Model the fold of this input.
Amino acid sequence: MVLNRLRIMIMACLILVITACGNEKEETKKEDNKKEEATEEVSAEKKETKDSVAAKGEETAASVSSDILNPAIAEKTEGNVEVLYTNKEPNYSNEMKGLKVNVEEYQIVKVSDINADTAYFFKDQSEGYIVTAKVNINNESGRDLYYNNTHRIQYGTIYETIPGKWRDLVDEKDYLVKRRGEDVGLVKDGEKITGLLNFIMTNEEFKAISNTTPKYIIEGGAADNKRFEGSFGADSPAFDFVIGEQQAEKLAAQPKVFQDKLTSDNMATKKLLYENLKINEANNIDQVNLTLEGIQYAEITPSEATKSMFRNFNESGIIALTMKFKVENKSDQPLNINSISAFLRANDNQMSYMSQPSLEPDQQREPLEPGTTGEILHVFLIEKDLFSITKKLKLEYGPFRGKDGKDLFKGKKAEFTIPLPK
Done:
């Protein structure tokens, strides 16, 4: 009896041990499975992270390469290139009798830690700034033409400029000036050329540009021969050169002043007093139709560089009156616009003022050919104390003169009534 009980107890213990071992194996197996699953998850996460990083790296690389307008800057200087501002729609253009030049976009970059061999571009400094302009040239003139592709950024007087360079830090495939043997700068009839120009600046020059109201100018001077004899085409208007979003917003908020040389050549700052842009008073001199489209009165403050030019005016101040005309030449003779007589008569000839051709745009130096229409600006300077007593203004316009300087249309003149500030 005792023996039977002992056998039963031994058997029970064996069952417990086997069960325990079985459970332990099952738990171990489950733990092993969990570890394998966790390892697989970690590996998958690592793979996903690695793929994600690689993808992001590819995306960043593509973004950088596509954002840089001129990769040759980094390649040739071996420096660090930081994009500061890109203007995709500057709307800068110039046309010279069928030769059309357009700035498609431009980009401003800072370059640092450059190769010593390229430091001479920045006056032996190890860093600086570059403006790269993408330029299109389209010859629709009906003949082969030569053009030197001279562009400039002007930040002071006409002597304070940064010239565009078509070879410096530009790949040959992006040269704007094409070499065809000895025919440098030839643009064949019907040809379209796209290339890059670099405006290379030191830190000091870029600071000067940042502290002024810089202008972008596409110079004229096309010709039908490589000696540039009889060249034609005036400089473009002086376009506002935007260097950042804040400046763009500031310019957008400012009133648009007429682009006489007081503005385009940074000769003076203007405080706009009054404008009327919808006068549209029409008149004619023989077969030339004249329309006075608008006027602007502004108090001007000459720049430091040009103060001496205004030394004959008294200390009361200077008022600039700029008039905008549309001139349609329906005659058979070219008109020498730059030498037209324009007199402003105040208070029934009590005071008279002559227009100032030296303050008027260079484009007006080109003759207005028969069958063409031009925009003309005339500038008058009036001492502020005399302007304060002016009650009536009349403009005596004409006569026109030909290329030989002689009066045209029997010396006829036209008259316009000029509104005063209200």
